[in-house]
């Protein structure tokens, strides 16, 4: 029953992630239709990373520390009072910090914009400051979502977080379609806030019945803080990367065919695709790995980590190959209309191809990092991330003058791939190298199945049988059919476990 529950949770979360991915694509399509790559889109691309960075620093690593701690608490009793008191204590702290940072962003918006983009005209600076003020509340809302997800995931509850993500982005899309014609990018910012607020409510509903007075033992709090502060410091350094990208493009790029709005479209599409790996396999695997480690130690952890890595490769390989082969066609079908031209499609498609290392490295690296968090090691992912980012920024500086935005994309790929590689080497040094050996056959089978699927999708485009909306689902079906015919054990096991008995 546990394996069946795990497989069903994985499929449910993955389906929800695909749904959210489709919605995110449609949101980008709405932005492209109404704003193209003009001033509104440029402002959006330069401002959005600022609150996103602060939100990620405060709450992005919260679940990595909370889930293992709460799994231990709820292991003995599903209704552990100590567990719920700790959960609500951390929730209160995150809420207060989030509100404080949101307030600082709101009142210092003008100074922040001037510091980052001093060459803007006064009108541009005022517009970006107003946009940052609207989006500042995202820090507090993202903190609440991250906290609620961590609590629910620690109890192996994946339905509400998945539903919250789909409903939140779905409402954002509906409002964006309704308000987009006003051609004011500020309205899009308000749709983001409304969608996040709805997502918060959906996440908190199942937790409200367990409301209790927040409390935490001193030793418990010290342990959580000792694990959390290296992640906090490392995240503060790592999350500044998207802002560095925008500053480099505006100040040093001589590429007249690509700008920050192109980079933003490409990165938003990539982040939506990355969510399939990180919000699917890694999310479900994390509490499972924590539970296995708490119950049976390192041997059981190593076995299940190898399984999780193999199943992650089932998703990463076809997506990486498929998106790389058809990036420009995907962008064309998704975004090219009204204000978004064929030249824009070409620029964004090239950025996505050059950034594909970001997708592979982020998806695989996320699972590796969670493995270290289960083992109680928050330093290794942090230090490897910092070192890799330094390497990536050096590459960006070296290439931005020659390649423009494409140099930024290549540097991002180097950053994420080097981080994942360093963590893989360290895991093998610790004796967990079986995940590499066990995944070799699956990776080869996945490459073969992906090649067949891509060939069929290519025929759809060449013979003008349809667009990406036909090629993508057809490619998915062909890929898993070939994996089944190749007798891939993970594919067959996951499908068989999902059958009702």
Question: Can you give a write-up of this model?
Answer:
- By secondary structure, the chain is an all-alpha fold.
- The protein has one domain.
- The chain is about 85% helix and about 0% strand.
- It is built from 21 helices and no strands.
- It has helices at about 1-35, 40-45, 50-60, 60-75, 80-105, 110-115, 120-135, 140-155, 160-180, 185-210, 220-240, 240-250, 260-295, 300-335, 340-355, 355-375, 380-405, 405-430, 435-460, 470-485, 490-500.
- α2 packs across α7, α3 runs antiparallel to α5 (about 80-105) and α15 (about 340-355) runs parallel beside α18.
- The longest helix has about 40 residues, at about 300-335.
- It starts with a helix and ends with a helix.
Task: Please count the beta strands (DSSP E, at least 2 residues each).
Answer: 0
Task: Give the quaternary arrangement of the chains.
Answer: single chain
Distance between the termini: 11 Å
Query: Helical proportion?
Result: over 70%
* Contiguous helical run count: 21
Main β-sheet description:
none
β-strand amount: under 5%
Number of domains: 1
| Helix-strand pattern | HHHHHHHHHHHHHHHHHHHHH
Radius of gyration: 22 Å
Q: Helix/strand/pairing class, anyone?
A: mainly alpha
Shape: globular
What is the mean pLDDT? 82
Unreliable stretches covering 5 or more consecutive residues: none
């Amino acid at each position: 029953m546990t394996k069946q529950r795990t497989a069903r949770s994985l499929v449910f979360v993955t389906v929800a992630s695909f749904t959210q991915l489709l919605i995110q694509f449609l949101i980008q399509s709405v932005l492209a239709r109404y704003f193209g790559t003009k001033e509104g889109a440029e402002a959006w691309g330069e401002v959005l990373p600022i609150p996103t960075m602060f939100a990620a620093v405060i709450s992005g690593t919260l679940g990595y520390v909370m889930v293992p701690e709460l799994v231990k608490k709820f292991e003995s009793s599903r209704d552990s009072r100590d567990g719920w008191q700790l959960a609500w204590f951390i929730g209160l702290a995150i809420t207060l910090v989030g509100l404080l940072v949101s307030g600082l962003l709101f009142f210092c918006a003008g100074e922040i914009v001037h510091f980052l983009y001093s060459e803007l005209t006064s009108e541009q600076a005022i517009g970006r400051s107003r946009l940052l003020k609207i989006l500042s509340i995202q820090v507090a809302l993202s903190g609440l979502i991250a906290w609620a997800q961590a609590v629910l995931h620690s109890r192996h509850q994946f339905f509400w977080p998945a539903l919250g993500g789909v409903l939140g982005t779905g409402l954002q899309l509906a409002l964006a379609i309704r308000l987009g014609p006003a051609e004011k990018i500020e309205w899009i910012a308000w749709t983001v806030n409304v969608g996040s607020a709805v997502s918060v409510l959906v996440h908190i509903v199942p937790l409200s019945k367990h409301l209790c007075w927040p409390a935490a033992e001193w030793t418990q709090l010290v342990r959580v803080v000792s694990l959390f502060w290296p992640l906090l410091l490392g995240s503060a350094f790592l999350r500044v990367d998207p802002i560095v990208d925008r500053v480099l493009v505006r100040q040093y790029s001589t590429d007249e065919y690509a700008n920050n709005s192109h980079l933003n479209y490409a990165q938003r599409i990539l982040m939506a695709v990355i969510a399939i790996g990180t919000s699917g396999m890694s999310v479900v695997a994390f509490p499972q790995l924590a539970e296995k480690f708490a119950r049976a130690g390192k041997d059981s952890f190593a076995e299940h980590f190898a399984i999780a890595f193999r199943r992650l490769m089932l998703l990463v390989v076809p997506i990486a190959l498929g998106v790389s082969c058809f990036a420009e066609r995907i962008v064309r079908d998704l975004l090219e209309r009204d204000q978004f031209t064929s030249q824009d499609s070409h620029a964004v498609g090239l950025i996505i191809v050059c950034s594909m290392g970001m997708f592979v490295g982020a998806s695989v690296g996320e699972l590796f990092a969670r493995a270290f968090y289960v083992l109680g090691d928050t330093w290794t992912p942090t230090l490897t991330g910092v070192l890799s980012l330094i390497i990536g920024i050096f590459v960006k500086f070296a290439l931005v003058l020659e390649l423009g935005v494409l140099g930024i994309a290549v540097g991002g790929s180097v950053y994420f791939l080097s981080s994942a590689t360093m963590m893989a080497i360290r895991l093998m040094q610790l004796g967990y190298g079986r995940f590499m050996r066990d995944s070799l056959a699956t990776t080869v089978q996945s490459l073969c199945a992906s090649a067949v699927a891509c060939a069929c999708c290519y025929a759809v485009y060449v013979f003008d049988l349809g667009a990406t909306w036909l090629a993508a689902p057809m490619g998915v079906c062909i890929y898993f059919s070939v994996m089944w015919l190749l007798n891939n054990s993970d594919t067959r096991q996951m499908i068989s476990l999902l059958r009702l008995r």
